[in-house]
# Entry
Amino acid sequence: MTKLTLGEQYKLEGEPLKVLTYPSAILKKIAEPVVNFNEEIAELSKNMLFTMYRAPGIGLAAPQVGHSIRIFCIDTDFERERVTDSDGRDSFRYSSFNPIVLINPVIKEKIGEMVYQEGCLSFPGVFEDVKRAEKVTVEYQNTEGELQVLEAEGVQAICIQHELDHLDGIVFIERLSQLKRTFLLKKFKKKKPRKS
Ligand code: CO
# Structure
């Protein structure tokens, strides 16, 4: 596959991965821990980030791209603006990247409550208010396997909780009221699942 490049500042390279939509069975599975921090994991992480930026999205979990393992990536800081290339074509300029890849993440502390309108690349077109903790402390390993701690708040904390749910087979629709949840899940089940 041809490598694509995104971004003016960072020249992030990667291959776009296919994002699976609900009701793909893998989205309901509990993902396995990562044991070997090898080249394959590094490559997958890079391509997940690439796919997330290109979508664009602020988070992407490995099960969404067909790998039932405990990895997700986030970036709640990047900006994307539409620009016109020198050859007259529309494209995007990316800036302010803050990519974080979290492997085997565990939330150690949750504080407060916050309601935020969430979306998900596996539920195109659905945006709903979800209540989650406002601050979280998360322990995780980076792509080298080194233990890291991140204290997050606001949108970044929300994003971490949304993505960690994906690793436990939970989609954000399941965090809504019974009524909304039933309605939305039915609507998606009726759609023909995309080939995976
Ligand atoms: Co999602």
In short: The radius of gyration is 17 Å.
